[in-house]
Amino acid sequence: MILRKANSEEIPFIWEILQHGIQQRKKDGSDQWQNGYPNEKTIQEDVANNSAYVFTDKNKIIAYSAIIKGIETAYNIIEGKWLNDNKYITIHRVAASDSVKGKGIGSALFAKIEDICLRENIYNIRVDTSFDNLPMIKILDKLNYSYCGEVIMGGSPRRAYHKELPKNI
């Protein structure tokens, strides 16, 4: 499996995966992703900003994530405390294809994101999720992300997580 930057021709495939995620969140009774975000314009902006990544298996896109380098301004205010104030990347808009549900793709995707960080000498990852997104919370707990408190994203409170990566890998 390969994690790589997405291109504009892949936007329809990415949007299809995100729509599955939107429907799943709705089915789970969540308000997350039920207000028109994310949408195709969001993906276009991710691609234009070089933050759109696809996770592929045998050249088939099976998951998507935005990997954002630089400051996430919404994270400047946290009810709680980040592990540190060092350089970090932010993970947003994680979704996997229905065809790979329950196959550990989320954990594998996060492992590949950690590899990218280490290659670029970035040793911190921050991510947030809705309080009711139990599948994402389970992945973050499993992968030893630390719950740091609450941030506001798009006007809604979110659980904020942070992971420090070891520098000696």
From TrEMBL:
It comes from the Bacteria. It comes from Halpernia frigidisoli. CDD domains: NAT_SF (cd04301). Keywords: Transferase. The keyword Phosphoprotein does not apply. This is Acetyltransferase (GNAT) family protein. One of its GO terms (molecular function) is acyltransferase activity, transferring groups other than amino-acyl groups. Residues 1-169 form the N-acetyltransferase domain. InterPro entries: Acyl_CoA_acyltransferase (IPR016181), GNAT_dom (IPR000182).
